[in-house]
Design brief:
Elements lengths: L8 H8 L1 H11 L8 H6 L5 H29 L1 H20 L4 H29 L5 H26 L6 H8 L2 H10 L7 H6 L3 H13 L6 H20 L11 H17 L2 H14 L4 H25 L5 H25 L1 E3 L12 E3 L3 H19 L1 H11 L6 H29 L3 H20 L11 H4 L17 H14 L7 H7 L1
Antiparallel strand pairs: 1-2
């Protein structure tokens, strides 16, 4: 018996982005736990490189997951590759819940990371391929919101479980990671396959029907459906002529898209927001906050994250991607400089660790300095939530061609996770060895990111995925001269409607019409 299929794109996005919630759950599965007595005692107060290894194990697994995601997605489809990834999440969560030492905990987080590597790269691809051009950003941003809800929910689960005695504290918290995966597995079979993937593997009839169901209530003769199908076919023919293999990512100007997709994800990590997202509990300790006050203060940042990403959800398709990337990086850089400068001028060294935590070796002076550090840490998250957090994933999902999108987004996510892993290993030792200077380093990197976005990232907002091809062509305009919108799809839809009205193809459906193109 065939299961009913959901074609409402918002509902499809909510179900698919449960994959993002897995990502969020695993990010904050450590945030509220690492400062608890139960965790510190059981794992013998891990610090420096060991805590870095525990924290970055998720990213290490995600590197591998991202590397296999593209070929896997091209082979079995976007939807089914997400389902495949869920298997490893269930195994990894079981390993974490039953862990007896740091090594087993790292192994479990690596397995969970493998899942996140696949879902973080292929959910945006899937959403980008089913969305209308003018709504693509607001649809893909649901992935970021799901990540942030996962972070918030898991953080407060961890905080609540901190009151449980013994190892049941963190085992219970980590066990709740089964829940979003269960709902994702239940929901996936009801989702449609990507019409662009169906076209790529030669299932044209199914592709047109799916496109029509998503875009036009099932009307295969709708001008939008015909116009988009013709664009898909034109691009596919060009890509088939370009050949296969890894060279297609670099030949005929494709290197520009590869560079754009991978670099925007690298800069998202190098901008340093994850220093706050992962380790605000450490910064709160530096600022003199302890106990419940420190935990709640750290947790509030995740609520702030959601609120401001939600605000951007309303405007993401009305604001250029370039504008948000450039000014977001500048704003984050300013916040890093303020936090680092205040820490450098108003702190003292505590070699034994603040509150006995070996990872926190400076204490910021109480009063205005401590308040400034917390305030600008929050402000950095606000800027990040409005700009780089959602836009980097959207942009990376948009720049690839149909034939390279799954593997290209896999490469982009691979770039993200390689730098995430490197920074995860770097951050805890950096808190010990260079203390406040870590924020100065990230401030400089943010300014470099702003310059990079300005020079090398053309505007993709409001254009169809096929139109974005032109932005990276040999004779493409300079990135800083491109503008949002200016889509040719509207004109193509009008042309199809005029063609139908005049009776040039009277009685001919979109398949036959496309075959004549």
């Amino acid at each position: 018996m065939k299961l009913p299929t959901i074609y409402n794109v918002q509902l499809v996005a909510i179900i698919a982005t449960l994959g993002g919630m897995l990502f969020g759950f695993d990010i904050s599965s450590m945030s509220a736990i690492v400062v608890t007595k139960q965790y510190i005692d059981f794992f013998h107060n891990p610090a420096g490189a060991l805590q870095g290894a525990i924290g970055s194990a998720l990213a290490a697994g995600s590197v591998v997951g991202s590397a296999v995601a593209g070929p896997l997605s091209d082979k079995i489809g976007r939807r089914d590759s997400i389902m495949f990834a869920c298997i490893f999440w269930l195994i990894g969560t079981a390993v974490q819940v039953s862990c007896q030492n740091a090594g087993q905990l790292i192994a479990g987080r690596v397995l969970n990371g493998f899942t996140v590597g696949i879902t973080s790269s292929q959910v945006p691809v899937y959403l980008a391929e089913i969305a209308k051009a003018e709504k693509r950003g607001s649809l893909v941003i649901i992935q970021q919101l799901a990540i942030e809800f996962g972070i918030l929910i898991m953080y407060f689960i961890g905080y609540g479980c901190a009151s449980i005695e013994g190892t049941a504290s963190f085992r219970t918290a980590w066990g709740t990671q089964f829940i979003p995966c269960f709902f994702l597995i239940i929901g996936l079979p009801f989702l449609p396959r990507s019409p662009r993937w169906l076209a790529k593997v030669g299932r044209d009839k199914e592709a047109i029907e799916t496109l029509a169901n998503i875009q036009a209530g099932g009307n295969t003769e709708d001008p939008r459906v015909i116009a988009e199908w013709e664009e898909i076919q034109t691009v596919m023919n060009a890509e088939n002529a370009a050949g296969r293999g890894w060279r297609k990512f670099f030949r005929n100007g494709m290197w520009k898209r590869t560079l754009a997709g991978m670099s925007v994800q690298a800069w998202q990590q190098l901008a340093g927001a994850n220093v706050i997202v992962y380790y605000l509990t450490y910064i709160a300790s530096m600022a003199g906050l302890t106990g419940d006050v420190a935990m709640v203060t750290s947790g509030i940042q995740y609520a702030v994250f959601i609120i401001f990403t939600g605000v951007m959800w309303l405007f993401i398709d009305k604001t250029g991607r370039r504008t948000l990337l450039v000014w977001g990086a500048i704003g984050m850089g300013f916040c890093h400089f303020v936090v680092g400068g205040v820490m450098g001028a108003h702190s003292r060294y505590v070699p034994e660790g603040v509150g006995g935590n070996a990872n926190v070796v400076i204490a910021v002076d109480q009063g205005a300095p401590a308040n400034t550090v917390i305030t600008f840490s929050y402000l950095l998250i606000v800027v990040y939530a409005l700009t780089l957090a959602p836009v980097c994933w959207i942009y990376a999902a948009e720049v690839w061609s149909l034939g390279t999108r799954a593997t290209g987004m896999s490469l982009a996510a691979l770039s993200n996770w390689v730098f995430n892993f490197a920074l995860g290993m770097f951050t805890p030792p950096a808190f010990i060895n260079i203390t406040w200077k870590i924020f100065i380093v990230f401030g400089v990197l943010c300014l470099a990111a702003a310059a990079w976005f300005f020079v090398l990232c053309p505007e993709t907002c409001g254009k169809t995925l096929e139109e974005i091809e032109l932005l990276f062509a040999k004779d493409a305009p300079y990135a800083w001269t491109t503008r949002k919108g200016e889509s040719r799809l509207a004109a193509e839809i009008e042309a199809v409607a005029a063609r139908q009205k005049k009776g040039e193809h009277e009685g001919v459906g979109p398949v036959s019409e496309v075959e004549k193109v």
